[in-house]
Amino acid sequence: NNVFAEMIGEEHGLTVKELEDAKEEALRAHQNILEAEAEGKMGFMELPYKQEEVVKELKETAEELKDKFDNFVVLGIGGSALGNIAVQTAINDPHYNLFEEARNGYPRLFVSDNVDPEGTKALLDKLDPKKTLFNVISKSGSTAETMSQFLLARKFIADAVGEENVGEHFIATTSKDSGYLIEIAKREGMKKFFIPDNVGGRFSVLTPVGLLSAAMTGVDIEELLDGAAYMDKICREDDFWKNPALVNGLIQYLAYKKGKIMNVMMPYSDRLRDVADWYRQLWAESLGKEVDRQGNQVNVGPTPIKALGATDQHSQAQLYMEGPFDKIITFLEVENFGEELEIPGAYQDLAGLGYLGGHSFDELINTEKWATELALNKRKRMNQTLKVPEVNEFTLGQLFYFFEFQTAVTGELLNVNAFNQPGVELGKNYTYGIFGRDGYQEKKDEFENSASH
Ligand code: PA5
């Protein structure tokens, strides 16, 4: 894409020279990340290598439980849910839940990540409690949404199988030594999996948070981790131009500084649709910060937007082409789809239709992408393409790891802590206060004296 960058020019794009001039900054960021890793602060970088035991246990658990239950329900939110959805969409049959033959003997998967009363009830109403296993995922073990879902699910199960059997229908995925969920799991005799302390929610897809639902639906979790390990080696490269996480982390940073404050991710693949959703949280929560590392008020952060090609060409593309020059668009292009799917030839006498026949859908979706890219370039709109040879566990593991590393790089360049989320915590604390949780009276008072009341 350097050719296109040169074409777009310095005003609205980036030239190779601009990257070359700034690459020392990226290399310093890289150094800082590796130093933080050596101090045990970059837990996500350990995940490809240090999970042999847990992977064994996850696979055994899946083998043991897949025949006992028809439904596997994840209760979690944010980083405790989005990775599960992304893996499911990317790897399994698009109609996995609908058809038994699409599931190969594994249970249906539901990720219940909201507390909308209608959605919540509609799901439980249709499940047979005796054949349903819940995975409650919460690192803090106290998030109001997840714990409310748990309380409801617990009653749903207890009413059907009796108090004494509740524990068999729940798995807790949480912190080993803190929070209420671990306490409950011990009391109820639930199976437990742990989220390492040094891995934050949105970086946790490759911990049991994402791996258990993957294993329970037949996804090869070792391949996911192997893909991440493969990408980790690439991300350790200290030659700037050979390290895509450094190049891309710097591109995103420089684009932001040039006013491209909107960051669109647009896969041309249904399978990668929810990777864009997962990335949206990763990028927003990691980089949107009020203060820099020194505590100065900075209020920075690009706004991530998810789009889907070709669908959103007919929804968003007009804005991307002609609206404000405030976006950088990242396309994900799949080189080999699992299907080619020919477009049948017909209506040869209708020239405006006949031309389609004989081409294939995989050709069409990528042609749509190239056409959009060219049109954006003509309009001097900044864009880049990440090519994915094909979507499978190995490449998905690479993508997760790549974007996590890139986020760490851009966080360093923006001089913010990419691993905390004080804004989210503030919202959580107001909810606790308004709902009457002990210790949060001050938050309740604030609410009662506010305009939101
Ligand atoms: O990335 C994060 O830290 C957050 O999005 C959390 O994952 C989310 O708030 C859920 O938190 P918890 O797992 O503690 O319930």
Automatic annotation (TrEMBL):
* Gene Ontology molecular function terms on file: carbohydrate derivative binding; glucose-6-phosphate isomerase activity; monosaccharide binding
What is the protein's species of origin? Halanaerobium saccharolyticum subsp. saccharolyticum DSM 6643
User: Which residues fall in a coiled-coil region?
Assistant: 16-75
Active site annotation, chain numbering: 285, 314, 428
According to its UniProt record, which protein family does this protein belong to?
A: Belongs to the GPI family.
Its name, as the record gives it, is Glucose-6-phosphate isomerase
**EC class:** isomerase
Main site of residence? cytoplasm
What is this enzyme's EC?
Answer: 5.3.1.9
Q: Which pathway, per its entry?
A: Carbohydrate degradation; glycolysis; D-glyceraldehyde 3-phosphate and glycerone phosphate from D-glucose: step 2/4; Carbohydrate biosynthesis; gluconeogenesis
The UniProt entry's GO CC annotations, sorted and at most eight, read:
cytosol
User: What keyword terms does UniProt attach to this protein?
Assistant: Coiled coil, Cytoplasm, Gluconeogenesis, Glycolysis, Isomerase
Q: Where in the cell is it found?
A: Cytoplasm
Signal peptide region: none
Known function = Catalyzes the reversible isomerization of glucose-6-phosphate to fructose-6-phosphate.
Entry annotated with the keyword Oxidoreductase: no
In terms of HAMAP family, this protein maps to: G6P_isomerase (MF_00473)
Q: Biological process (GO) annotations?
A: gluconeogenesis; glucose 6-phosphate metabolic process; glycolytic process
Q: Which reaction does it catalyse?
A: alpha-D-glucose 6-phosphate = beta-D-fructose 6-phosphate
